[in-house]
Write a structure and sequence with these properties.
By secondary structure, this protein is α+β, with helices and mostly antiparallel strands. It is built from three helices and four strands, in the order ααββββα. The strands form two sheets. A two-stranded antiparallel ribbon has the order 1-2. Strands 3-4 form a two-stranded antiparallel ribbon. Helix 1 runs antiparallel to helix 2. It binds zinc ion.
Length: 140
């Protein structure tokens, strides 16, 4: 957070300094100092936000690619929906792309439905026999 404030102050100082230089040169050629200053400040902010957007987008893409690389390939033997021939296919389970394969036998296109099923892990009930035994003794 503190770092971001520092970056903001730094970049703003640079923008204001450059704008002042531009406005000064405009003013020396008998131009309007204030108008040149406002124009160059806004121009630089538009330029920086544009470049910043591109850089940001690039890093988002990079991160996404890394996440995709982490996903392991799945291999499976699937029957062709047309001729029932068994095909060995390998794919990366990406949620955006649908998985398709072309059959080796009839060269028809197949779409793979990936279904994940979830089951609860059942724990065995442990009978506490020593407790039951002592209760029986005290009752007798
Ligand atoms: Zn087939």
């Amino acid at each position: 957070m503190k770092n971001q404030v520092l970056v903001f102050v730094k970049s703003t100082t640079v923008v204001l300094f450059i704008s002042a230089l531009i406005s000064l040169s405009v003013w020396m050629f008998k131009g309007n100092f204030i108008a040149a200053f406002i124009l160059s400040v806004s121009f630089q902010y538009i330029l920086f936000s544009f470049i910043g957007g591109i850089i940001n987008n690039y890093f988002v893409q990079q991160t996404r690619q890394k996440e995709l690389d982490k996903l392991e390939q799945l291999s499976s033997i699937l029957e062709c929906s047309s001729c029932k021939k068994a095909n060995v296919i390998t794919f990366i389970p990406d949620e955006k792309e649908r998985v398709e394969f072309v059959c080796d036998g009839c060269t028809k296109k197949n779409v793979v439905n990936i279904v994940f099923s979830v089951a609860r892990v059942t724990e065995p009930i442990i009978m506490n026999s020593s407790n039951t035994a002592s209760a029986t003794i005290s009752n007798a």
